[in-house]
Amino acid sequence: MTRGVRHLLDLDDLAPAELSAVLALAQDEYPPHVLAGRGVALVFQKPSARTRNSSEVAVFQLGGHPVSIRGDEVGIDTRETAEDVCRALCQYHSAIGARVLDHAVLERMARVASVPVVNLLSDRAHPLQALADLLTLRAHWGGSLAGRRLAWVGDGNNVARSLVIGCAMSGVAVSIASPPGHGLDQDVLDRVAALGGEVQATSSPVEAVEGADAVSTDVWVSMGQEGEEASRLEAFRPYQVDAALMARAAPKAAFLHCLPARRGEEVTDEVIDGPQSVVWPQAANRLRAVRGLLLWMFGSHDGQA
Ligand code: CP
Ligand code: NVA
Known about the structure:
Mean pLDDT is 96; it is low at 301-305. This protein has helices spanning 16-25, 50-61, 71-74, 82-90, 103-112, 127-140, 158-170, 186-194, 205-209, 229-236, 243-246, 269-272, 279-299; strands spanning 39-44, 65-70, 93-99, 117-119, 149-153, 173-177, 199-202, 214-217, 254-257. It is 40% helix and 14% strand. It is of the alpha/beta class. The longest helix has 21 residues, at 279-299. The chain has a 5-stranded parallel sheet. Strands 2-1-3-4 form a 4-stranded parallel sheet, with helices on both faces. The protein binds phosphoric acid mono(formamide)ester (CP) and norvaline.
């Protein structure tokens, strides 16, 4: 990191009190134009519907100009190094969002950036999704987070990692059911422990979901894992969230999914379209989440530490 610029590569780049401040700012539906006259670069090495659109609209609502760029246009590490792409974008923009294949690319960009770098999803983390998920859970649980329990069913992937960290920062316990070899890695468990969080890992979806206040899942094959598709579909088959599994959760438990979903794989139509599903408010919260983050970054301390 350079000159005290604050980046968001994962949620624990924020202190817990800062996370609370971002979540509060996310509720501001008529925010001040803190980005007036400024640009924000949004680089995508992988496809996106929600992240690109919510980020572009958020920058617009804050008075700024978003420039979305496909990875192959700037050629990260092909046309020029990731560092030089980042240095170039810093000449024109007040922040850089990037969705990358390899989290290490984000870290390299953040090391040379003179403006904040925000992770728009990497193979390791999806902090903007976790912010939206916390907003969604808080609304579903009547305005508070602490003391509840979320069950994650499936892959201990990028989305799971950031959400589990967000839960640890917010006093939400997590139970996670994954096939052997696909659970949360030690790095995340260590960070959760450092935050005083609670994660119970099991291979049994029923055990994880029993009595939970929310149930969340994600695709079994993330972008970039297409080569593992056959073995993953086989390993994850017992981990589908269906009506019988949801019935094990607390009666008013919410069902969350970051989307896009592969219906009939990790979740049935009955659950994702059912009365407990909050996936569309969750998608709507992506806009509030990124707007709240940018408002926090540029409202009070203008991207500086
Ligand atoms: N949830 C999410 O990040 O969706 P996109 O991949 O469509 O941006
Ligand atoms: N885990 C998924 C999330 C997509 C928003 C992926 O990385 O493809």
